[in-house]
Automatic annotation (TrEMBL):
Belongs to the sigma-70 factor family. ECF subfamily. This is Sigma factor-like helix-turn-helix DNA-binding protein. Transmembrane segments: none annotated. Residues 77-116 form the RNA polymerase sigma factor 70 region 4 type domain. Keywords: Sigma factor, Transcription, Transcription regulation. It comes from the Bacteria. It comes from Kribbella deserti. It holds the Pfam family Sigma70_r4_2.
Length: 135
């Protein structure tokens, strides 16, 4: 027996962002060409006909990039966390190189990265960051 009063929810569920997703997005966030993707050496010429995409199953990459950009500007990161995230995930520096540049230990950089990415993930998921719940 089905209930005729049952309606599907119209609310769109937000994606659950994770640390790996955020770290991947930040590599592309400050690269104006990243949204266009890379071209494979064996790819067909650009003037070849393409298939029509299925919009119901389309990629959410652009939406995730937009969300990441908003999180970057609205999440209350310290300057040290923001700098560590930028150097690591945008410029691809190693934690050792960042630590040497900042004059601190590698463990300090790892803590800044952990806390900063955690805050970004919490912001994107509509939560409050807590170190106790992030381990």
């Amino acid at each position: 027996m089905t209930c005729s009063n049952h309606r599907p929810s119209l609310m769109v569920r937000r994606p659950d962002y994770t640390r790996p997703v955020i770290e991947y997005l930040f590599a592309a966030l400050f690269d104006p060409h990243a949204a266009y993707g890379s071209t494979a050496a064996q790819a067909p010429p650009p003037d070849m006909p393409r298939s029509t995409p299925n919009k119901a199953r389309s990629n959410t990459y652009y939406a995730h990039l937009a969300d990441a950009r908003i999180a970057w500007t609205t999440t209350p990161l310290t300057d040290k966390e923001r700098r560590a995230i930028f150097l690591r995930h945008v410029l691809d520096w190693t934690n050792h190189d960042i630590a040497r540049h900042e004059g601190v230990t590698r463990q300090t950089i790892e803590k800044r990265l952990f806390t900063g990415i955690g805050k970004l993930v919490a912001t994107l998921n509509g939560a409050v960051f807590s170190e106790a719940h992030s381990h």
